[in-house]
Amino acid sequence: MKKIFLNLGRQPITNSFLNKIDKKTTKKEFFYNLSIGFDKKNFLVSIMNYVNPKKMFNSKYAHRASSSKTMRKSFQQIAFKLKKRFKPKKCLEIGSNDGVFIKNFNKKQIIAIEPCANLAKITRLEGFTTYSEFWSKQLAKKIVKLNCGIDLIYSANTISHIPNFKEVFDAVLIGLSKNGVFVFEDPYIGSVIQNNSYDQFYDEHAHLFSLLSISKLLSNTNLKIFDAEITQTHGGSIRFYICRKNSKFRETKSMKLLRFKEIQQGLNKFKTYKNFSNRVKGSKQNLLNLLKKLKKNDKKIISYGATYKSTTIFNYCNIGTDFIDYVIDTTPNKQGKFTPGKHIPITSPEKGLNNSVDYAFLGAWNFKREIELKEKNFLRRGGKFITHVPSVRII
Ligand code: DWN
Q1: Is 269 exposed, middle or buried (0-12, 13-18, 19+ CB in 10 A)?
Q2: Whose CA is nearest to atom 17 of ligand 1?
Q3: DSSP per-residue string spanning 64-121
Q4: Is CATH 3.90.1150.10 the classification given to domain 49-270?
Q5: Is residue 348 within 6 Å of ligand 1 at its C-beta?
């Protein structure tokens, strides 16, 4: 039974960047109430009312996983690590986006699953076998018929987007070879609690995982976790290594340690999430107070990175063009559009990060290091970044 611990109010679809702002488009804009609950039975943290996937994952999906050097390098490293550790012959990625992970494999060796047609077209044109469908038992059966068992199934920032775990794990069981491994990674609830990064909650993130919750969810399946690790990507992610219960892999020491740390952090206790919720309310107030103070001193503030995460912040804190003049983003298909819900214009860094800017809110705070290295001139001439993680402050 899920118990609500946080209400982030009326929120739009984070992938719905608007081409123009007029009565017609804003009237059609879809909103829902974003509240988050904790299930004390399986320790799972989930959004309470999941939006129809077809409203979110469509042929205009805006996010490009290869949009940062950090992620391109991260996917190259994990591809190398998985090939070295498991020596898979046949691989498959669930949620291949623009191919940033699969491009590290031989085209004949890997199959891409990507429901967003505009993204599936990219990898298909590059010669990868790409199924533009949602991962399901039916699709797994179709693939196994053509390829026998899959030795490595990988997925990044996708499983947390799928409300129906049973379908995902049953399909993995159909797809995996005898000693095949399923490796998936998603934003880590332990890092969200630690960093107060409440912006990791939005329509696409149906759930945020812990080792404790995924262990509970797998307990009544024929799968088991044999390893788990925390990575720094996306502000803190958890990577699970899963295999068939009768497979050769044994639980690692680091996984046992992580389980102990999660209990220490109280990820199995409702009060941990209630305390987090109180910090989120404080974070909202502190951010608004800071922006009001800067605007009172006639400072120009923009936002850096038209992230899905920052849509949660701007709609929860009611931050629009009264505070943020515009957002800059390197993704061409976001430029010239407006952010969901608060309709802040988006432009390119070349146009937007000019000498008139005093402060830039880090919408893409998860790439802080990459951005600071890239924007040395902005910092040198006195420009400053604002962040809300782990606390609201001018960097
Ligand atoms: O789970 C998801 C994550 C992986 O990606 C998806 N559900 C949706 C999306 O969420 P996000 O938009 O919060 O992800 P990112 O990767 O934090 O988005 C970064 C944005 O910032 C991109 O639009 C690119 C942009 N960017 C930029 O303008 N300049 C990024 C960097 C590093 C830069 O220097």
Answers
A1: middle
A2: 364
A3: -TTSSHHHHHHHHHHHHHHHHHH--SSEEEES-TTSTTGGGS-TTTEEEE---HHHHH
A4: no
A5: no
- Supply the residue whose CA is at minimum distance from atom 5 of ligand 1: 63
Atom of ligand 1 nearest to the CA of 374: 34
Q: Which helix (H) or strand (E) holds 167?
A: helix 165-175
Q: Is the CB of 371 within 6 Å of ligand 1? A: yes
Convert the pLDDT of each residue in 116-172 to its tens digit.
Answer: 999 999 999 999 999 999 999 999 999 999 888 999 999 999 999 999 989 999 999
306 close to ligand 1 (CB < 6 Angstrom): yes
Spans in the chain with pLDDT lower than 70: none
Task: Give me the sign of the Cα torsion angle 310, 345, 329, 127.
Answer: positive
Beta bridge partners of 183: 154, 241
331 lines ligand 1 (CB under 6 A): yes
